[in-house]
Structures
1.
Amino acid sequence: MNPTEHFRVVKSCLGTKARVGEIITARGKVTTPVFLPVASQGTVKTLTPEELKDIGITIIMSNTYHLYLRPGIDIIERSGGLHGYMAWNKPILTDSGGYQIFSLASLRRVSDEGVVFRSHIDGSEHLLTPELIIQFQERLGSDIIMPLDECCPYTDDKSLVCQAMERTHSWAKRCLNHHHGRQFLYGIIQGGVFPELRCQSVEVITSLGFSGYAIGGLSVGEVKEITWAIVAETVTLLPEDKPRYFMGLGAPEDILTGVALGIDLFDSALPTRVARNGALFTSTGRHSIRNAAYKSREEAIEPGCDCYTCRTFSAAYLHHLFRTEELLAYRLATIHNLRFISRLVRKIRDSIHQGTFSSFQKEFLTSYQTTDEEVRLSQKQKWLRRVKVLPEL
Amino acid sequence: MNPTEHFRVVKSCLGTKARVGEIITARGKVTTPVFLPVASQGTVKTLTPEELKDIGITIIMSNTYHLYLRPGIDIIERSGGLHGYMAWNKPILTDSGGYQIFSLASLRRVSDEGVVFRSHIDGSEHLLTPELIIQFQERLGSDIIMPLDECCPYTDDKSLVCQAMERTHSWAKRCLNHHHGRQFLYGIIQGGVFPELRCQSVEVITSLGFSGYAIGGLSVGEVKEITWAIVAETVTLLPEDKPRYFMGLGAPEDILTGVALGIDLFDSALPTRVARNGALFTSTGRHSIRNAAYKSREEAIEPGCDCYTCRTFSAAYLHHLFRTEELLAYRLATIHNLRFISRLVRKIRDSIHQGTFSSFQKEFLTSYQTTDEEVRLSQKQKWLRRVKVLPEL
């Protein structure tokens, strides 16, 4: 067990379950609620570490599965760990890559021992076990690490979900036993969309005693109402004094809802991925800079935004860079979207401190036009089909 | 005519025709010899203006043809000119785009009036005249502008070259007449690989009186010996007190030779284009970072190099970014190559000041392994065929 305190709640919202907290690691303190940009391959796509810091990013997320395949754990270990390798000296959370193994890779055999899969890059065969996943993350030197879990696709087959959940529990125990305590290990709650399984999962995982708790296996194709119902019920069962982490969520409106339900950490590739497609967050919603309306707009994408992109360039210039497929486009859009999210979580924290979170949430959603739920779900399912979480139609 | 002095020679080399000079523009002074990175579409690919300045870039080059097609001159003019549009407040030289019209575009008709061509983007038909090209560059607000010239492909058909040269001369006169004098207009010497045509071209163009002189139509597929013979002869005929600009040259060894022959300005997409392919300049030559040897190299690409990339990341990390096709790769490689060239021209200027240019050149070329001439020429011709300067085999 970790000898030092890892998390404390600083301020709680009276009307909701929102709270401001502090995560303490050897590489510094992270104030929550917080959003973690995704650096799956050891780089937040298009950006340098200095740019991330300028944007206000305090912790990033990387992925053991990706780094294990390329460049390999050895190479990173010899480069002074992941922090030295990618020149990022603030906290890093690494995911086990369970989700990627069950989606990107070609599965060969899942057994109690572990997972045999073929690499999505060169087809080579690999066995990963809970013990190896912990060892890899210890060698990567990340600050917060995750156990291997079995991620089953979104399904209404309860026995399938139950089986994956039970294996996740057994792997969680082995991860905890194999863990040397220098890093903070979080537990992952599974159980699909079945409240009674979620309840059972919380019971088992919290009884083992982790430094934090992640909710996995949601936002994988189900409608939002179900997501939030499961989150609300799960959070109620989780201990107050440990951080709560919703894996794979990053749309502004979802962060607000997640915070209201008591979530402290969020990660998602969404803000950076949609940026590279030209979809930019603004106070009125997500807009495509490729739209002809921007061709001659001399103002910034979002007038008043303090990000480098908005301070320096017009929407017209960014439109031009996207239309001509200039590489600078993806970078400038990524800076804007990450700064938007970084400012959003800061405003959320401020409003919790000031006791105005609920009105801030309401106000934000009054002007921010969210993506239509039907469109969102079809886009999400299309994406999940592409990464094989959902079967082909 | 420009009322102010535009150029002065500060120091000349005794053993060669190399010299240090100063170009004066309303947006600042540029010390020569200097290399101009190419920002054809209003961006030096992958980089921000701040990064260019950190690298030591003092002047960049853009392209009227590209900007005319996208986003259009109107949009840039309304954004405060090209400087405001791309947020670059130091000098800009714009090329007319003659070279691109005769290579990228689909030519319809060349007459004394001008050029009718179809856009390489959408096939739309356009007429460009010498007068329009000057008007466009005045509206872009660049500091140094170029006349429209007829670029004929590399050929031993002297009458063809002569015809293009004569049209270039007539267009040069019209450009000069249409020019309002707020910007510095350079003349372009044509004449292919024929010394007597080059001589004739220098005579006509210098008699018109421009602020500087560019040598065009070289490095378009001929062997290097011919390139340098023509440059050497041409420079001898050019006035001492005007800047001399070799259009389209950017390999380190070529810059050294060009400087020795009296060239002051160089531009080329080569350093940035090869960077995006993973070919990096070092003191021992150009090396591919994709090579497996770099997979676990913990030192910088070039130990001792002061560029951001070398100060921050290992060669192993850059190798990984290229192998995983991460967008950050192209940017870090571009920074390194441009800084290499920027340091090279600074060292050239220093050595001219110190009277050690010849020994510096010799020393540099002792360790710097240049690309084999046969390989170079075949690569160049392949490239020129792709952009249609040379016909398909």
2.
Amino acid sequence: MKVVIIGGVAAGPKVGAKINRLCPHADVTLIEKGEFLSYAGCGLPYYIAGEVKEQKELMCTPVGVVRDPVFFQNVKNLKVLNRTEAISVDRAAKMVTVRDLRTAEEKVLPYDKLVFATGSSLIRPPLSGIDLNNVFSVHKVEDAEAIRAALAQNKAKDVVIIGGGLIGLEMTEALARHGARITIVERLPHILPMMDADLVIHVMKYLESKGVKVRCSTLVQSFQGNGQVASVRTDKGDIACDMVIVAVGVRPNTGLAKDAGLELGKTGGIKVSSTMQTSDPDIYAAGDCTEGCDLITGEPCFIPLGSTANKEGRVAAVNVCGGKDVFNGVLGTAVVKVFDYTVARTGLGEERARKAGFDVVTVLSPAPDKAHYYPAAKTIMMKLIADKKSRRLLGLQVVGPGEGDKRVDVAVTAITAKMTVDDVAHLDLAYAPPYSPAMDNIITACDIARNKMDGVFEGVTPVEVKAMIERKADVVLLDVRSPGEVQAFPFPGSVNIPLGALRKRWTELPKDKEIVAFCKISLRGYEAAMILKGEGFTKVKVMDGGLAMWIS
Amino acid sequence: MKVVIIGGVAAGPKVGAKINRLCPHADVTLIEKGEFLSYAGCGLPYYIAGEVKEQKELMCTPVGVVRDPVFFQNVKNLKVLNRTEAISVDRAAKMVTVRDLRTAEEKVLPYDKLVFATGSSLIRPPLSGIDLNNVFSVHKVEDAEAIRAALAQNKAKDVVIIGGGLIGLEMTEALARHGARITIVERLPHILPMMDADLVIHVMKYLESKGVKVRCSTLVQSFQGNGQVASVRTDKGDIACDMVIVAVGVRPNTGLAKDAGLELGKTGGIKVSSTMQTSDPDIYAAGDCTEGCDLITGEPCFIPLGSTANKEGRVAAVNVCGGKDVFNGVLGTAVVKVFDYTVARTGLGEERARKAGFDVVTVLSPAPDKAHYYPAAKTIMMKLIADKKSRRLLGLQVVGPGEGDKRVDVAVTAITAKMTVDDVAHLDLAYAPPYSPAMDNIITACDIARNKMDGVFEGVTPVEVKAMIERKADVVLLDVRSPGEVQAFPFPGSVNIPLGALRKRWTELPKDKEIVAFCKISLRGYEAAMILKGEGFTKVKVMDGGLAMWIS
């Protein structure tokens, strides 16, 4: 069996290695346009930061074996043609024409099975001045080396990062480590568009506290400078800088697939079945060049990730070899380290869940990630999205210094298994004080969702409360914190009755008016609402997440 | 509705608070024998260690509100009778007789619903000398204060800890922080009996590297000393010491329930249905005093944990109030911090899985918990247990400095949802270099399990290889590491052919003999087996986990 794989970074080598293990005598050729194979592209920001010391580390296996063409030949039994471009595919004749980029020599490779692992390319907006010196992207090893060289020459004192997505934020931290003053410019109303606005606002506040300027709803128009970039022109004024990082996303590399007549998906990637087969049964595709499928809605999506590329690569290889494996889709899971914050998400956000027709219940829950008395405990601000009708968990988002990634991974598993919030609330998660509260954060959030679904109490989000205040709504804001807490962090316009006094002082409150109860995290706010409900109040709501989730 | 709850530490207050929120006018009385209510018993080792500074912190809510009887009355609307013991239950008359331990006064409390939350008691073996000074247990706040007082007087230079379970290990770290020299004495062949022997051996090696002596298969016979303990007598000799911690487990407090004629389970706890109802429909029970149910096998179990107590308490409260909620059982999940190691497990161990009739496949996989090039990456040694027939994940165990608790929580969720290893291998877990490898540890372990189930390769455990060496079996131990690695850490009796040379040098190996291939983590060992299989070898196995899991 002759197999040709086009692309040698993430999915390609995985496909090749797995095919060889399953069919040791397959004749597998791997074609890669660049010099480097199978490097850890996701590690580039950490190499730029200086946390990863040597470029070589990004090229090695976990035990330090360098993944060069000789390695692939000797160990994986793959013929590697690097610096070689696939220029056309003749599907009828089952042949790929390739060109050696060093010699310009062309040759034709016959195949029984062909695999597209052509990856993605940076989107480089066609703006005036984008080719000035010190306007960088972060996609290849060469980009990282160029940025490191500029850093070594002290040419990164003021950096503008265009795009507040995952790479933009990783680069923010990487360059801040070198002492750069950073401005993030984002065209959308908030950074990290995969996160809900009411949660991501806490990331933006945190970034500002770290000295990073965040400019949202701002359009970049051009780059100014003489040889080297000196400022970024936006619709809201110029921003002086000596370095620019353009991180506005990637698009799938599908030119060759399109020319070969393969079907592309709505989102632009190569259309594949769950066996990673393209519209041609002898051609498979895996990784960034393909269109994905949202596991909850079944809708097509384009979410390029190294982790997905590896899983898809294995599935493609098994099917190429005549086995049977399927990859059903993704949940849009993402995680990024932003200084000491972990920001992560999975599943549907609130808006998408509504658009998909779910009867959405949301929870905002700020809580320590370990037993609250354990000194290393840190806060996770959590937002949970669930469906009232089916009671299914639909999504989870986390922001804060606590270990949110653990809770998101639990949610990934639960959502994939179509678990309800009731199921999740009863999970026997690992508990000891250094690892979680006795009721883990995700269990507490699910219990709050269950209370809301069961009509035990009604929530109102900080965004809604803020709108009430702004429109001077006729509502009592009931602060049930202790006098000491109120003094330390007052909430203007509210009435303070400490929770412990409420059973005696509820008569001070009007039964005919809407009341919003809250405290620091709205646990006491919830207790207060229950006490008032018990006394016959019918218009009491609880502010979701309390002042810990307040947006100012 | 009159509700009486017996027990005020973990499940009891949860039941009471939840009942009050659901039925604000219920008349709820909470009876507690001790002085303290709702304290964080799991936090005692960290208070003894000095990590938690004030006793008060263990008594507070996450926002610092002290949970004293006044708090329960004013906030939770519970009548609290502390220092009060329930001495009998008249089920026909629906009355509980209680005695005030301060005044010896007795009174009778009528109930509509009664809840047992009587918790568990320490097992205190009836050995000679157990009442000597400085022989402690760790169960109540008073125990912790006594140990802290002894530490303050510098009376803990040499400590013997009887019992190598979770509390024993938490106390090991707590006392080591004070500079104590520690010996753990365990009657079983290994500490942490909930873990599999081949994984826990790495915990024992680590403890020894930290200066802790571990004496297994050792029976304590008596405590020697004059007033204060001076040594522990065992069947293997005396161990000199100035402090002893007895941590041999707890048993459910069921005397009152038994006297009242409630049915007890096989494991000794109060028998309850999934609604937490006892054999008397008006009596519920929750927490340590109850018998649990293993979610996989359906067998009864006794696994007292604060996390389970909270979940069961909520379920009991909902049902007491006429709602409907169920708690189906637990997976025996446990986690413990042992210095810088995280040791955790869930589901069935290898032996129990076999006994339960599963066709067991196991995987040993040592791998970094983050991208291997990310400097903060640390190793997790992982053991996965699955069923070949159904392909279901059955159990996961982790040991090492890496974040194993995250992977165990994913396994908890997957096992509860009855996921297969194929399902888990395709989970869209959160990936970025500071959080996981591109293929998360649990995904890699599941892929290895899939390869074994599909007959791609055959494994042999380090325990089996050691036995082969000891019986001088006619087997070739094929080390495919690089010469440099072999020189640094030789493996006597093996043949070294580096993986990269194997495609040329396989002719040096005999086809008729059994061959066990390995490397540092057996990834190259696996590649080697695939290469040899391709060349017609039929007797090649791979040593599970490689030298990283070797037991010496």
3.
Amino acid sequence: MVFDQSLGVIRMRYRFGVDIGGTSVKAGVVDENYRILSRGSVRTPDTFEKSMKAVADLLFDLAGQMGLSESDFSCAGFGVPCSVIPGTGRLVFANNTNWKNVSIKNELSKYLSIPLYFGNDANCAVIGETLAGAARGKKHVVMITLGTGVGGGIIIDGKMFAGGDGLGAEIGHMPIVYNGIRCTCGLSGCFECYASATALIRQTKEAMAAHPESALNAWAKEHGEVNGQTAFDCAKEKDPAAMEVIDQYTSYIATGLGGLVNIFRPELFIIGGGVSNAGDALLDPVRAKLSSYTLAYDVVGSAPVQKAILGNDAGMIGAAYLDQMN
Amino acid sequence: MVFDQSLGVIRMRYRFGVDIGGTSVKAGVVDENYRILSRGSVRTPDTFEKSMKAVADLLFDLAGQMGLSESDFSCAGFGVPCSVIPGTGRLVFANNTNWKNVSIKNELSKYLSIPLYFGNDANCAVIGETLAGAARGKKHVVMITLGTGVGGGIIIDGKMFAGGDGLGAEIGHMPIVYNGIRCTCGLSGCFECYASATALIRQTKEAMAAHPESALNAWAKEHGEVNGQTAFDCAKEKDPAAMEVIDQYTSYIATGLGGLVNIFRPELFIIGGGVSNAGDALLDPVRAKLSSYTLAYDVVGSAPVQKAILGNDAGMIGAAYLDQMN
């Protein structure tokens, strides 16, 4: 809230929170209670310049629909699906968009005059969940998002931690299997290669090939394709091959979280992303296995593991509050 | 320096820095320029109570030799070879001493009345190296010590990072091999199981068994035993089996550092401990391989890898300054 001297009234101040994805851009008007008052999205255009123009247009539309102008907003924050230098908004590694070494800040500054902040999308998600979601009130949080890849976000002492130069917290690219599977990033054995939705689907298909009699194959025939839900659905029906897939998949997740708990000792782990919709069928085995990867577990215990609760909103809310968490 | 009103002079203030090991306790009088002015050591007695009494006696001796009394010291800091709760000095996991769940602070307070600070020994080492050694002037540093185990210390933004509850930064117990070798800590696949001096010796012995003709066997016969130097010495003479040992060992180290660089993006890695005495024969292959484990290496580069330069003094100096780095 700010006091507007010219009008002699107290007015709300808003923030734009923007989640820039490879296929679409989602934006919201976020208030000081972390509520999204208005939201919209556009498909990501084919070039970087067109995309930035589309983002700015989307923000002006959202503001206009609420009868607001840019001056009603204290800032705009942007989550991007890649490594980004926070100060300059320079994208240094954008797997999904082919934008590389361009300055999102310079381009957006052509249209917007309020302060602009930038962060990795997974970092924005952990900020959102910490301010308004599953980790509300916590000071030390590690979040992983299990989607196409594995995103990571870390809160230390109430602030976002993105590494010494702002390009870190790439939890998905911590190796957990020495000389393991080649990752899309070019490295090998990355956590992401074993714990992402993509990995779960691969593991499910491998089990289907090894066990043609399994319920997994019947499920795939019925649904037309294998997805991150296949093994969970069949494991619920006690299909042995599916149960083995879930057992191995959750072991990989616990292995990664084990390294993280021994280093970060967070108060809470949050798991988001599409696979987290499986709920306790995913979380319970991860919780049980995590003890086997926690140093001195019998003396100091481990960290609880909870499901993210804000879904896609976490990224928008977190982006809107990037300035307060650095 | 402090102004002593009663004498009307400026007097130096000193700090005790203590490195408590499983077999011996080393202590030093450290000045405000991080110099160790006086030092001493005692063998670690067989019980916890006797050990703490011996530590206090050692400190009084050191002060007495310099004509100082306890009041000339601003504090005493203690590095311990285990997890320790910083505020209470409670030891929660002491592999090497069998001290578990005892309060070092309570016991030492029977003898000492100055402020007492406690930290893990590897955390103390990275503080020492950052204040006065290889990482002087750096704000973001990750150090590993390659000895009996693998110790870890992390500096973030100029402060020691030991996890949310002070029991973290256990880099040695980050799994790098899924379902790997059982660690002495009870977990499996820990970085320590592949990158410690103990691991290097095991890998060397395995190579000796597989290659009876190798120079490794001749070296062992001549020196009476295998140690962390064996493979480096023989690799220098181009023994193929030894070169393979070093190649694999440095790959394991690079794998662990890779996970850390993608998360912490430090300005510098420091490697200490006995194995680091091999110098560039160890560091050069680690540096070369680290690029293969660094996300977007071609765009953002990795972190330099340097040898620790303070040896055992790092732990004492760091312990003496624990209060300033928390």
4.
Amino acid sequence: MINKLIENIKKTNAPIVVGLDPMLGYIPEYITRQAFAEFGETPEGAAEAVWQFNKAIVDATYDLIPAVKPQIAMYEQFGIPGLQAFVRTVDYCKSKGLVVIGDVKRGDIGSTSAAYATAHLGRIQIGQSTFTPFGEDFATVNPYLGTDGIKPFLDVCKEEKKGIFILVKTSNPSSGEFQDRLVDGRPLYELVGEKVAEWAESCMGDTYSCVGAVVGATYPEMGKVLRKVLPKSYILVPGYGAQGGKAADLVHYFNEDGLGAIVNSSRGIIAAWKQEKYAAFGAEHFAAASRQAVVDMIADISGALAAR
Amino acid sequence: MINKLIENIKKTNAPIVVGLDPMLGYIPEYITRQAFAEFGETPEGAAEAVWQFNKAIVDATYDLIPAVKPQIAMYEQFGIPGLQAFVRTVDYCKSKGLVVIGDVKRGDIGSTSAAYATAHLGRIQIGQSTFTPFGEDFATVNPYLGTDGIKPFLDVCKEEKKGIFILVKTSNPSSGEFQDRLVDGRPLYELVGEKVAEWAESCMGDTYSCVGAVVGATYPEMGKVLRKVLPKSYILVPGYGAQGGKAADLVHYFNEDGLGAIVNSSRGIIAAWKQEKYAAFGAEHFAAASRQAVVDMIADISGALAAR
């Protein structure tokens, strides 16, 4: 799947991923109104609004982008109907040729981690048949529990040709509370990065590993260090745009080959219509606003990469 | 909810929690066969088998125990029908007066963490109505992202009178890879423990905090230290029984008041009928075997506590 991700990135010339993290507040009122008219002011109604919103954004952007990253928490908050909208979104994005990174940040041990890996990247055997529970192409994974938590994901990745991105240095202000603490004079995130590099070696695609890392755009100096620690891993970069990460800061997340990183934007794309910059589109053309925001983001990042 | 957990523990005199982590291999064949006959060899069929299995175990044990801990991964692996069985299990356990600890190990930042907190412990407003997505009483949470990941859970805990258990030192063999690394001469898990103590202070019940910690039974020396670091937190202790933790090792996880810890057993209880010790019950009386295993576990732990 890492090969397909790279192929998609080369084809679109866009090392970006659109975060499908729909909050009800991002969805134009006419969509919510229609969904509520059909399903009531219920989780089913909210899930329908989320699905219609996602579908419009995917339809308006899929030819420009290599991948999407739905954040499962935003669906989980609507309970079962929300997760049905998640599955529908994953399936639809895959039908459009997009690589789907499930931002699930799961992490447990042994058979439990194996169950998560099965749920998100694998297939489950029931009697004589096999089923695909959620069917993402990649999943994000939390490293706090160590190798016991990662190994079951690696097994599924190898078997199903899927991939994972492991949290190394997250984009939030308090990420340093534990991640930056010095161990033998070096920050914990570097040790986690080294471990990720080790796991990455064990699961290689053609040029990059199926094991990537999450490194926030908001810590560019650390990104520069981690790029070297993780030569064969793709870096998934959250925190661009709304969280403050700038394109010029992100060039060091990429390798010399122009590959090796994929920058996420969620709110900056899917809620573009609510920004002053794209207000002229109006609520009714929210998806066109998202498309323009994608075009602008690609230009911003490509420009920074060309200028380095 | 911490008050209710303590009340339940005092009432049953049983500081234990039954882990409802059903694997298909634990379920007697006659249950699976009947579920498949009704729903086919499908995720729906598997989910029905899981639900029937859970219900029988809850019916056979609820009067002896204060709480259950369903592991969501084991349901998530069956996709949407699996999660429906999870919801059904949560609801049923609550109707029986049990406290439900959702072992979900979620953890993200900001609005995403808030969405997880809403999903598992809170309510969501949709239009003029509010809904309860999953409705657990407690959730387990991963600390790797720092305060930004925890704060939204604390907010929901305060508002809804719910609770969380934060991973501090996990029971698995490789938990030391990161958790034991020395920071200023002290292991990372101690620093995480101190932070948990800080968060715990901000969300107190009558005698204990709504913020607890997960500390594995397999590391009793560390449990002893963390007991002191976390005076006001309940410690949720996985790793008893099947993973190797022994009752005598666990006495130091408790405070002088005999409270402060709750020991989990999953497989040891729910798959008791597959152990030699309880084989006489036979597959058909698997729930009675679980009840006997609960009785034995309570005696084992009470005995160790009485002997200290």
